[in-house]
């Protein structure tokens, strides 16, 4: 089973858009949450110490920004599963 990436982002965030577009191109499963519309999600990323979007979570691993080193393993998992 492949882990899913959760992207916590905000509207008009260039880096959020880059991350989403990369996932779409590579067929990486993701869930996008707009933290301006979800107070619980915003509180979660703030508790984790993040103040800027995007924040990504894969399982219990989390990161800020467009971290392809964290996301590429998902693409490799998918290609092996095919």
Explain the overall architecture.
The protein is α+β, with helices and mostly antiparallel strands and 82 residues long. Helix content is 44%, strand content 22%. It has a four-stranded mixed beta sheet, sandwiched between helices. It is globular and about 35 Å long. The termini are close together. The relative contact order is 0.25. The model has no long low-confidence stretch (mean pLDDT 90).
The 3D shape can be described as globular
Strand count, sense and barrel status of the largest sheet are: 4 strands, mixed
**From the alpha-carbon coordinates, what is the Rg to the nearest angstrom?**
12 Å
Structural class: alpha+beta
Number of helices: 3
Please report the total strand number as a whole number.
Answer: 4
Report the β-strand fraction as a percent range: 15-25%
Q: pLDDT under 50 segments (min length 5)?
A: none
Strand order of the largest sheet: 2-1-3-4
State the share of residues found in helices, binned by percent. 40-55%
Seen as an oligomer or otherwise, the chain set is single chain
Summary of the model, kept short:
The protein is α+β, with helices and mostly antiparallel strands. It has helices at residues 14-26, 39-47, 68-81, and strands at 5-9, 30-34, 55-58, 61-64.
Which key terms come to mind for this protein?
82 residues; 3 helices; alpha+beta; 22% strand; single chain
